[in-house]
Amino acid sequence: MSPSETDAGTGPDASSADCIFCAIVAGTIPSRQVYADEAAVAFLDINGWHRGHTLVIPRRHVADLVSGEPTLPAIAPAIDAVARLLKDRLAPDGFNVLSSAGPVAGQTVFHAHVHVIPRYADQPGFTHLVDPSEVPAAELDAVWAEITGGTA
Ligand code: AMP
Ligand code: ZN
């Protein structure tokens, strides 16, 4: 992230007014939503590391899982439901579930989120976990339809 992006209000101290994930919760920015309940919303990561990589976020703005009121207990049912949905629809060979808190941990969006990442046998282990190559929109639309049964 460049300094100018940080200055624009996207850093760890950003308020909900500046927050891209709050905008997704509000519906003012589109997302490929796969699940929602009263506490959480889940949608495909726009640049996911593996097919079906999904973010589970609290509806309430909080910078990360270790700030403010406890967030993980509130979104745990959503994390569980999303992992089972992805397991059912995409039949991956495994999962990683992770959340980063703070820039030093690699967090880049400062609205708490949990990555639910299906894993496939052809790219095993931690060494293949992170792949920041760009995912074409058509591929995201295809996997979204496979998870939700919807048409993009
Ligand atoms: P982290 O680096 O743990 O903060 O994760 C932030 C994630 O949010 C990254 O994997 C991004 O690809 C993802 N992301 C950023 N903007 C969007 C967006 N508009 N829709 C979906 N995912 C996004
Ligand atoms: Zn937010």
TrEMBL record:
Motif Histidine triad motif location, chain numbering: 111-115
Residue stretches in coiled coil: none
Matches recorded under InterPro entries: Histidine_triad_HIT, HIT-like, HIT-like_sf
UniProt record, GO biological process: nucleotide metabolic process
Domain HIT: 20-126
Pfam families tied to this protein: HIT (PF01230)
Active site: H113
GO MF, one annotated term: catalytic activity
Residue intervals passing through the bilayer: none
SUPFAM superfamilies, sorted: HIT-like (SSF54197)
UniProt name for this protein: Histidine triad (HIT) family protein
